[in-house]
Amino acid sequence: MDLANQNSPLIYTPDQLQTTTDWLLNGNDGKRGQAQQWLKNRGITPELIQHYRLGLVTHHGRAGIVIPIPADDQDTRYYRKFRIEPWSYRPTWSQKGLPAMVYFTHKPKAAKQTYLCEGEWDAILLGWAMRDDTKIAISTFTCGCNVIPPTEQLQRLPGPVTIFYDLDPPGQKGAEKLALQLGHRAKIAQVPFNQTPIPKGWDISDALNADCSLSQIKAAARQATRPNHKTHDTRLNYEQCLEKIDEILQIEDTARQLWELNRLAKRAELSTAQLRKIHQTRLECARPFAPMDVVDFLARAPESREWIIAGKIPKASTIALIADGGTGKSRLSYDLAYAVASGQSWNGFRTTQGKVLIIQTDEPDVDFSDSLRDANYEQFQPGMVQVETEWQFSQLPQLTRWIEQEQPTLVIIDSFTAANRASELAEKDTNYGACIYDLRNIANTYGCTFLILHHTNKLGESRGTTAIPDNVSEVWYLRHPKPEDNLPEDQRIWSINKSRSRCSGKFVISYDPDDCVIVYHGDFKCTPQGQGGLEGRLLDHFQHAPGIAFEIAELALQFSCSESHMRRLVKRLWRQGHITEGIREVDANNGRGGKSRKKIFTYPESDDQVTETQARQGLVSDDPKSTSSDQVTTTTIYHGSLSSDHPIAQTRDSNGRELAVQGEQVPKSHSEQGSVSLDHHHQRTGVSPPAPDLKEGDWVELLTGYFTGRQVQVVGFPRKKPGWVEVKGKAWLITKEYERQDVRLIRRATP
Fold it and tell me: What are the boundaries of the region Disordered (predicted)?
């Protein structure tokens, strides 16, 4: 009878039990014979089989002896416990749906004490042997010697409890554990024996089958002793246990750390996972709940986001780069790391130089070294790029100390799974990704960014628990192009799906095998009419005029969009670190005099300026010492008689036809930045520097009037106005005249 397969009940009725018993007693197949012979060898006769309702079933194709455990006091329902083919070379137990509980094989109504055996077969034999005793109950647990049932089950045991567990280390340990739980009710007895030396694992069944009498068993019960409470004294309390965990987690030897943690778990009678959970909960609860006033919070917070690679890698962040094997995620990470270590721009995106740590635990050293040589990592000075090939997340304290000492800007972990291989948790377990919170705390404390490489599953999503992408600040995906993408096979689609720095998007990159670099091709499927196209043209406009300040109004007019839309695009470029924000002071156009302020946005003239301007906001000090030509600040005050709108050339004639666009500016060369100090002197002292000897074709900056700050080209010298200069913007259709003291030489005419 197959009552234990797919649709079989977890609880038997008396009729179902009788069917299994009939098969065990009267069946005519080989399985019945094997089961009866095995039970006979243990001293269990057909009479005991009928009394305790033992039965025979097939369990997933294998024969199993059923031990029914009463599920109620009326004997109307029974849990089932199977001993699968104990006569074979691979016997096993099966007890699905059976709770940890007490199983009585003899329980007289007037019972005053209990003999507790280690297993069901022992309890069946002893219960049958003492079936005429009216004072002693015989029982066992359904959960083995190492597990103790709940308190309400222990309360079912009548009177004092004498424990007859097997004579082996697990039995001795389980007896002591149970006795400590029962307290003064429990004593531990030694199973009587009549052989020397005592066979290992000697139990009550062995004693009864070796003709030990009931009087010997009762004598052993009278000689039972209370447990040695020395074991109880060595158990740690809550505070001691947590202190010990702190000490263990500081051990650098991972194997030793795991060894000590397992020893502590045994002393605390907990699992190592429970110890880690208690420790983590303690750390979280130890943080005080102290809300901060929003003004104080904003005062201590950075005024703007800082970037390692503008618009791609924010500072003090955690990034997950998720891709299938062979997609090129390692190459991309090495290319980004090279830009950071060298300080060179990455495909036109400005980069903050800093130290790099690459933790490579996913590929062999020979492959790793080949990749670094191909990327020209041999050129770096010692200390700029360091590598580690054996680190694991269990060594997080060592990594923290190293970061505190070396202060790297970027840390790459390739890959998350390989570095977390010592974890006792499954990859699908939510707590598997909890270590990313530790990386986040390190990033916030020391200002470094973690780039964590991870693999995808068959669906192209993050493999394992969703806690991995959920716990990081930025999520990148890298994939091969699909046929409908209409891209070459050697290109990749780089998607930033989640970005707390607000830089999400899809981009196209490829690997140049000749130069061994990643080539950035821009936005994926972006049309010039879309926001991505306008944003790209806007950034290009800024990049072609470094050092030139622009207002929202003039940019909106030039690109034919609303000021609100232009403000969003400019703010996005500013958040990504491409441009800087400042304030220009102009004469107020309200009839009362005074000054008004307008926000201006500038593409920095050097990477040094980017580094400083990303971290600060505010006005330039009026202290002349702070205005040297090599010092850069985010905000510069421009003095002049500017109207409320930034100057633009007339763009339409009387018939409404397009005439001109805003004048384009010519960037200053770095070799001519020394002349800036003359302009600072003129702005702050009001004394004009000596007028330079200008020539046609020279580029100058206007120092006064409506077009203050504009860079224009000298086109002539008015004969009727000695000392005056005629100038014209690059796209202007008209010229204007200025006194020589109101212009400053920027660059000489090209010969």
Answer: 585-693
